[in-house]
Amino acid sequence: MGKRQLIILLCVILSTALLLYVHEGKCCDSSSAADKNTDPPSSVNATLKFIPLCTTSADEIVATLPNSRWRLEIVCSNATVLTKIREVTSDSPPFHISWDDGVFCLRKFLRFSCFKVKGQKVPNLVHYVWFGRNYFRPEHLISVLSAVRYQKPCAILFHSDHLPYGDHWRLLLHLVPEVIHIIRHQPQAIFGHKFGFIQHKSDVVRIQALMGD
Q1: Residue 187, pLDDT score
Q2: How many CB atoms lie within 10 A of CB 111?
Q3: Total domains present in the chain
Q4: Could you name the domain of life of the organism this protein comes from (predicted)?
Q5: pTM of the model
Q6: Distance separating alpha carbons of residues 42 and 183, to the nearest angstrom
């Protein structure tokens, strides 16, 4: 499939099956904000719903977003870990943890929150590695929303040195409170050999994330 065909396909997907975060509101709804439910989500996992035939564009939706959103936050102590959904301003970044300093807290969060099924061996978690300050495109939004809808993870971890930007990123943060920024520096070498491509840096970070190193 060529690049042009891929772009057309993505446009069709976005225009006919835009995933929106729903409490009581609806896409293209003209009711006032006072009529809509502003209570926090009842669980960590956001409720997503297909709303077909919505022709509103992403920038139009972002322009009508409320001034606040919900954000998953993690608080660790010596013995326990607490998670809470807190209301923050619309332009607030996701909750962040430094990989170098906060990996112990992250492990505790995984142990207490991401093993919900008896005998489960792998935490129900989604990782994305994102290096550089890059625009968050429609296909990136679809990827994350698909993972949330079908996998229903305890959190979406973005391992990155710089967060994405753009309307689709802002929309994602409103739709999915469980996005967490794991602050990572780009690795420069492995076994004394410098990396030639950023994809190779991403490979190393993915392995480190799975190993917890």
Answers
A1: 87
A2: 11
A3: 1
A4: Eukaryota
A5: 0.71
A6: 28
The CA-based dihedral angle spanning residues 167, 170, 171, 172, taken in that order and rounded to the nearest 10 degrees: 120
Helices (H) and strands (E) in the chain, counts: 6, 10
Output b/e per residue, 78-97; b: 16+ Cβ within 10 A: eeebebebeebeeeeebbeb
Helical H runs in the chain? 3-16, 58-63, 99-113, 138-151, 167-175, 198-211
User: Is residue 137 within 8 Å of residue 172, measured between CB atoms?
Assistant: no
| Residue whose entry in the numeric block shows the structure tokens 């990782």 | 127
Q: Which residue from 119, 100, 95 is spatially nearest to 179, judged by alpha carbons? A: 95
Q: State the amino acid at position 209 in one-letter form.
A: A
Contact 159, 153 (CB under 8 A): no
What are the CA-CA distances from residue 213 to residues 92, 156, 190 (Å)? 29, 18, 14
* Site of tokens 């042009």: 4
pLDDT of residue 210: 82
Using the structure block, give the residue that is written with the tokens 């602050």: 183
Question: Which helix or strand (DSSP H or E) is residue 128 part of?
Answer: strand 126-130
Count the Cβ atoms, other than its own, within 10 Å of residue 4: 8
Distance of alpha carbon 119 from alpha carbon 186, whole angstroms: 35
pLDDT of residue 117: 81
d(CA 55, CA 58): 9
| DSSP code per residue over 83-123 | EEEEEEETTPPPEEEEHHHHHHHHHHHHHHHS--STT--S-
